[in-house]
């Protein structure tokens, strides 16, 4: 029974050494008698017991390695503490096994040295504003150096860039000064805009007043012209009516009577308003005056009739 048990265990051991199942997420490097034989992809495989063995197992998924913080000096001699993450993937299991002892450690150390070198090319402000270009430069340099290791560096991400306390204090003062500068510029621009708006408003007000005055004068001129036209037309019509009346029978006597009444009325007004009494020399001979006026009226009527004809 003991011998049977030993035999069964030996058979299971042989089967264990004979059969190999490689998971989907990794590849296995097989050595035969200490020499590289093949890289087995995920799946079911057969081995020769006691001759073949699994020497290395590699993760073929993308791996994330933490790059510990390190001290760097920027181009303007500012001390910075920088850390990051490197993303890589095993592309060749054979090179990853025999090209380097530990590709993870090598990738982290190479990322540190490359990052220190790249930051030394940039000033302090550029390290913050040009993170993307800095990451691309680090990936390019690491990928170029890690090609013989059978790995592919996919990307590099800087996590933190921490200046020293003295530099942080200086940056805070600089930011405060910059904020004060922007505030003063904003106030100056606002004051400038207000003055421009005020001057434009005054200019528009002056234009509106001048336009109003111009329109008022135009309206007054039009009104005066219309008034003169109406008066002239009325006088013309009046003269026509007078000439027509004089041409009729008894027109001269009516005009003579009208002139006498107007004369007496004007003389009365002059005597009432004047401080000194003036008496015409011919006042005693009013009859002769009126006769003279009647002759003048006849002459005016005759001229009017001739002009109408």
Please characterize this protein's 3D structure.
Helix content is 62%, strand content 21%. With 309 residues, the chain is of the alpha+beta class. The strands form 3 sheets. Strands 3-2-5 form a 3-stranded antiparallel β-sheet. The protein has a 3-stranded antiparallel β-sheet with strand order 6-7-8. Helix 3 packs across helix 5. The mean pLDDT is 79.
What would the keywords be for this entry?
309 residues, three-stranded antiparallel sheet, 8 helices, rod-shaped
Strand order of the largest sheet: 3-2-5
Strand content: 15-25%
Query: Which parts are unreliable, with pLDDT below 50 for 5 consecutive residues or more?
Result: none
Overall 3D shape: rod-shaped
Main sheet, how many strands, which sense, barrel?
A: 3 strands, antiparallel
Mean pLDDT: 79
Q: Class by helix and strand content?
A: alpha+beta
DSSP strand count: 8
SS element count, helices: 8
Distance between termini?
173 Å
Helix content: 55-70%
Helix-strand string: HEEEEEEEHHHHEHHH
Radius of gyration of CA atoms, rounded to a whole number: 61 Å
């Amino acid at each position: 029974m003991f011998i049977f048990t030993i035999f069964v265990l030996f058979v299971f051991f042989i089967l264990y050494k004979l059969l190999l199942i490689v998971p989907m997420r990794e590849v296995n490097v097989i050595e035969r008698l200490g020499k590289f034989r093949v890289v087995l992809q995920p799946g079911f495989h057969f081995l020769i017991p006691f001759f073949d063995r699994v020497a290395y197992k590699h993760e073929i998924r993308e791996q994330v390695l933490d790059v510990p913080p390190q001290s760097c000096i920027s181009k303007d001699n500012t001390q910075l503490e920088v850390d990051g993450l490197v993303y890589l993937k095993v592309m060749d299991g054979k090179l990853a096994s025999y090209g380097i002892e530990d590709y993870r450690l090598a990738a982290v150390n190479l990322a540190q040295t490359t990052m220190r070198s790249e930051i030394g090319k940039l000033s302090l402000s550029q390290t913050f504003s040009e993170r993307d270009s800095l990451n691309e430069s680090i990936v390019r340099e690491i990928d170029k150096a890690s090609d013989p290791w059978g790995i592919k560096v996919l990307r590099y991400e800087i996590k933190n860039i921490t200046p020293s306390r003295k530099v942080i204090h200086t940056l805070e003062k600089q930011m405060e000064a910059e904020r004060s500068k922007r505030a003063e510029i904003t106030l100056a621009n606002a004051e400038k805009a207000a003055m421009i708006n005020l001057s434009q408003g005054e200019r528009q007000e002056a234009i509106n007043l001048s336009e109003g005055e111009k329109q008022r004068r135009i309206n007054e001129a039009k009104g005066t012209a219309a008034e003169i036209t109406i008066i002239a037309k009325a006088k013309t019509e009046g003269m026509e009516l007078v000439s027509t009346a004089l041409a009729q029978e008894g027109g001269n006597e009516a005009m003579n009577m009208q002139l006498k009444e107007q004369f007496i009325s004007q003389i009365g007004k002059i005597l009432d308003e004047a401080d000194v009494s003036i008496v015409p020399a011919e006042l005693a001979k009013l009859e002769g005056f009126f006769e003279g006026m009647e002759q003048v009226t006849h002459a005016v009527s005759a001229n009017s009739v001739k002009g109408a004809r």
